[in-house]
Amino acid sequence: NQTICGNVTNCGICSSGTCNVTGQCVPQVPVGPVILFSDDFESYTSPSHPPLYNEMNAKRWTINDQTFPLQNDDVYLNRSKSFAGTYSLLIQDDAQVIANVSTLGRTNISVGYARRTISAETSEFLRVAWRVGNSGAWAVIENAQSNAAWQVRQINLSTAASNQALIQIRY
Fold first, then answer.
1. 33: cis peptide before it, omega within 30°?
2. DSSP result, 96-128
3. Residues 122, 139: Cα–Cα separation, whole Å
4. What distance in Å separates the CA atoms of residue 84 and residue 41, rounded to the nearest whole number?
5. pTM attached to this predicted model
6. Could you tell me whether strands 126-132 and 167-170 are parallel, antiparallel, or unpaired per DSSP bridges?
7. Is the pLDDT of residue 6 over 90?
8. Is pLDDT at 12 greater than 70 in this prediction?
9. N or C: which end of the chain has fewer CB within 10 A?
10. Angle made by CA atoms 23, 27, 33, in degrees to the nearest 5
11. CA dist 15 to 9, 10, 11, 25, Å?
12. Does residue 50 have a cis bond before it (omega within 30 degrees)?
């Protein structure tokens, strides 16, 4: 499961409410977190590539699975190791999945996810990182080593994640 949240901010142009991306005032929304991106991996129709990758791309995911041991075989839905519901997303070997999220008009961005790192060798780990835009250095959120139990993580990102057309979260 993966959720990215942010608080609504007033753009300073409106006397009350907030501004949308075109600068128009919209009514004030309730104070508190707003879910900007979420995926429980339950709505996909295919458990593996290529249809799964196409479906994930349509939901603002980027999948990088290009080398060892074969191309396009290291990200798939798994029934036997789910956190909640029927499926979890299994990422193995060198593969990565990247969530693409707009935080325009939002502040106090946080990332929440449930993860389980099993069968990892001592030199292997799950690295979670984020960045602004689609290029440049990644800021590491977590390096998780092998752990058979599910763990839920909630991490606040720096203020640099606020009000951005694109931030990326990489798993």
1. no
2. EEEEEE--TTEEEEEEEEEEEE-S--TT--EEE
3. 22
4. 10
5. 0.77
6. antiparallel
7. no
8. no
9. N
10. 95
11. 13, 9, 10, 9
12. yes
